[in-house]
Amino acid sequence: MPVVLEHLGKRFGDGAPVLDDVNANIEKGEFVALLGASGCGKSTLLNIIAGLEAPSSGALEVPSDGAAFMFQDAALFPWLTARENIELALKLRGVGKAERRAKAQELLELVHLGAAGDKRPHELSGGMRQRVSLARSLAQDRQLLLMDEPFAALDAITRDLLHDELERIWKETGRTIVFVTHNVREAVRLGQRVLLLSSRPGRVVQEWAVTEEHRTDAGLAGQLTGVITARLREEIRRHAK
Ligand SMILES: Nc1ncnc2c1ncn2[C@@H]1O[C@H](COP(=O)(O)OP(=O)(O)OP(=O)(O)O)[C@@H](O)[C@H]1O
């Protein structure tokens, strides 16, 4: 099991707990969508899984080689080309110079940017930049990939395209993915499992399995989206009181 979270809690300083008694098991190769309202602690939980933050209580098991991380903002180095951004990640991983170029090209092709390797970030669209960012995360070659609202800033059509791409890449690479979003449609589109995090404190309050039937039957997927949206609204209302 790559990720086990047991009674995980987090508070910053002497503030109110941000996370409280979070429990979850994520299996190897699984695609889990972590859904929650703004500010409920999704990024904090992802940072804890990534080892960037320590939990205040509870226990967690994560892969010993850590995780690759992809953020909402591509955060590419502007003075490097797309290829060089990816090569840098490979270099940091200790891949030799000769091998780096071929591997970077392979990753560019995987994200359908085979011809754009020499472009710098400002010459790329937002969607293309996120593809480079995805390729760079894959260059880190970790089994576990943590994604923090990576497509939130993109327009709906580009986002749909990237959903298809990410699904294909997930299937091709067998990565374990934890994908944070506040968008229910996106969670149902991508996740095999959707975990709903409550607000203040954040806790997994419900989870849903997204089955093959949901993938092939838009009506069924729409129904599930409706059910999850209603539950999310309830959480937001409860928190607003
Ligand atoms: N380093 C920190 N110090 C103090 N408080 C923090 C810190 N990091 C996060 N918080 C608080 O923890 C809470 C949860 O933040 P977090 O960013 O994890 O939520 P989120 O669900 O990812 O939100 P969003 O969807 O808006 O990105 C917020 O109230 C935030 O102010």
TrEMBL record:
Annotated ranges, domain ABC transporter: 3-224
The keyword Nucleotide-binding is annotated on this UniProt entry: yes
Listed GO MF terms: ATP binding; ATP hydrolysis activity
SUPFAM superfamilies on file: P-loop containing nucleoside triphosphate hydrolases (SSF52540)
Keyword annotations from UniProtKB, A to Z: ATP-binding, Nucleotide-binding, Transport
UniProt xrefs under Pfam families: ABC_tran
Gene3D superfamilies: P-loop containing nucleotide triphosphate hydrolases
PANTHER family documented for this protein: ALIPHATIC SULFONATES IMPORT ATP-BINDING PROTEIN SSUB, TAURINE IMPORT ATP-BINDING PROTEIN-RELATED
UniProt protein name: ABC transporter
